[in-house]
Structure formats: structure tokens, C-alpha cells
């Protein structure tokens, strides 16, 4: 006779009843106008904000990951100056609140008139442009997300690099591989098993953190729904619209992360 787990059945019943009650309470609440949610779910301004959110998250993630790899490799350097500089980078951009970093980057025009790319100690300018033309709300948001994300992802990259045994480095040196080749062909492929899961979480976290760029009117999804709520005076309904889109995108990213982790585990 199979063993009957009455505790599991009772626990599952309690969960289902509680969930059903919560759904019914929200769905039948007279103070929520679900018609407003349906009317604005595919509104042009909301979809435009969603596209900008996806764009700034994608660009910020790629730029932040590039910075994180550089900083993570620097953190493992034998040079105390190099590793110390990387540690300061991580400390600063992991410690500054994202909203403060957004305000700083978005208001660079208060500190600098122009952004200039020049050859040091020569006075030769390769490129120059006014800050107001370069640091738009969109690019300020991307920059802040990338800098903040690099602080966290650099530690993820460092942990992945340290997870590869020292014997792998020694074997590569014995074969005559340079340090760059060892990092590219030996260390990083093995470190990806450790790096990919937290990077997926970081991507989802960056997507949610992008809602904060509404403080500088970055044109993202949250900026769009808050702008509409200021006209319709249905703040909760518009926040539900934004939440549904965030949940939909995160669901897709979670599925992609699952298969990517399985693929990396097979190698």
C-alpha cells in the first residue's frame, strides 16, 4: 500500500484555497477598474515605453558585462595596483544607490559643458560635443544601469574565474599558451557554468531596476504609465499595466535563462 502523505494534501489545499481567495478578492474588487487596465495594456505610449525599457536594459547589460569582465579580470591580477583599482571600482559602483547615480549622470551638464576625447598631454582633440546633446535621458539611464551593474557583475565574474582550479592555469602555461589565450580558451569556458546563473538574475534585476529611471523621465515603461496615470487619475490601474508587462518579460527571460543554464551545464 502506498504511503499517504496527509500533511502534503492539507498543505496543498490551504495554499489553493488561499490563492483562489486572493485572486477572487482582486478580480472582484469594486475599487479597481479592470476595463482601464485592458484599455491601456496595449496603448501606444505604453508599448513605446516598453521598447525603451528593453533597449536600455539590453544595452546596459551588454556594456555592464564588458566592464565587469575587465574589472573581474583586474581583480584577479597579481598586481596590487591593478587589483586595488578594480576593488575601488566595485566598491564605488556597488555602493552608490542607483537613483543617486542616475541623478548624477543625468545632470552631468551642471559640471561639464562639453565631453571631449583627446590624446593625453598633447592637446589634440579627437572628438568633442556638448554634454546636453550626448547625455540624453535615455543614454544617462543606460550609463547608470551599466555602471551599477558592472559593480555587481564584476564580483560574479571574479567568483567564476576563481572557481577554475589553479592546475588549469599551470597546464596552459606548460603548453605554452599566453595569459590571454589561457583566459579565453581555458578559464572562461569553464567559469561560465558558475557565471551564467547569477548573470541571468542580474539581467532580471536590471530590468526591474530600470523602473527607477522614471526619476529623470527616461521615457521607459514606468515613465509612460505614470504619465498616463497623471491624466486619467487611475494610478493603481496603470501600475498594474506596468506590472503585467514586467512579469511577461521576466517570464520570457526566465525561460531563456533555464535553457541557457542547461546548455552550459552540458559542456
TrEMBL record:
Signal peptide (UniProt feature, chain positions): none
Subcellular localization, as worded in the UniProt entry: Cell membrane
Gene3D superfamilies: MetI-like
Main location: membrane
Stretches assigned to the ABC transmembrane type-1 domain: 50-257
Entry's transmembrane regions: 52-74, 86-112, 138-157, 211-233, 239-260
Keywords: Amino-acid transport, Cell membrane, Membrane, Transmembrane, Transmembrane helix, Transport
Short name of one Pfam family: BPD_transp_1
Membrane topology: Multi-pass membrane protein
Family: Belongs to the binding-protein-dependent transport system permease family.
NCBIfam families to which the protein is assigned, alphabetical: HEQRo_perm_3TM
Protein name: Amino acid ABC transporter permease
Classification of source organism: Bacteria, Bacillati, Actinomycetota, Actinomycetes, Propionibacteriales
Amino acid at each position: 500500500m502506498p504511503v499517504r502523505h496527509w500533511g502534503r494534501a492539507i498543505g496543498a489545499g490551504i495554499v489553493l484555497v488561499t490563492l483562489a481567495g486572493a485572486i477572487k478578492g482582486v478580480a472582484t474588487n469594486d475599487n479597481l477598474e479592470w476595463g482601464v487596465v485592458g484599455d491601456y495594456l496595449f496603448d501606444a505610449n505604453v508599448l513605446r515605453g516598453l521598447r525603451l525599457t528593453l533597449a536600455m536594459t539590453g544595452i546596459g547589460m551588454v556594456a555592464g558585462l564588458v566592464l565587469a569582465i575587465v574589472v573581474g579580470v583586474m581583480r584577479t591580477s597579481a598586481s596590487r595596483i591593478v587589483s586595488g583599482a578594480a576593488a575601488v571600482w566595485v566598491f564605488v559602483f556597488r555602493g552608490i544607490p542607483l537613483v543617486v547615480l542616475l541623478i548624477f549622470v543625468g545632470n552631468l551638464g551642471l559640471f561639464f559643458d562639453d565631453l571631449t576625447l583627446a590624446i593625453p598631454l598633447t592637446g589634440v582633440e579627437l572628438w568633442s560635443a556638448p554634454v546636453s546633446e550626448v547625455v540624453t535621458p535615455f543614454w544617462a539611464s543606460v550609463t547608470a544601469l551599466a555602471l551599477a551593474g558592472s559593480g555587481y557583475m564584476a564580483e560574479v565574474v571574479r567568483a567564476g574565474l576563481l572557481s577554475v582550479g589553479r592546475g588549469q592555469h599551470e597546464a596552459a602555461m606548460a603548453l605554452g599558451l599566453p595569459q590571454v589565450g589561457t583566459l579565453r580558451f581555458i578559464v572562461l569556458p569553464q567559469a561560465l557554468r558558475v557565471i551564467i546563473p547569477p548573470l541571468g538574475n542580474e539581467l532580471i534585476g536590471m530590468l526591474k531596476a530600470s523602473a527607477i529611471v522614471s526619476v529623470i523621465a527616461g521615457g521607459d515603461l514606468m515613465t509612460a504609465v505614470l504619465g498616463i496615470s497623471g491624466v486619467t487619475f487611475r494610478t493603481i490601474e496603470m501600475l498594474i499595466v506596468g506590472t503585467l508587462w514586467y512579469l511577461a518579460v521576466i517570464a520570457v527571460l526566465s525561460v531563456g535563462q533555464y535553457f541557457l543554464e542547461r546548455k552550459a551545464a552540458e559542456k
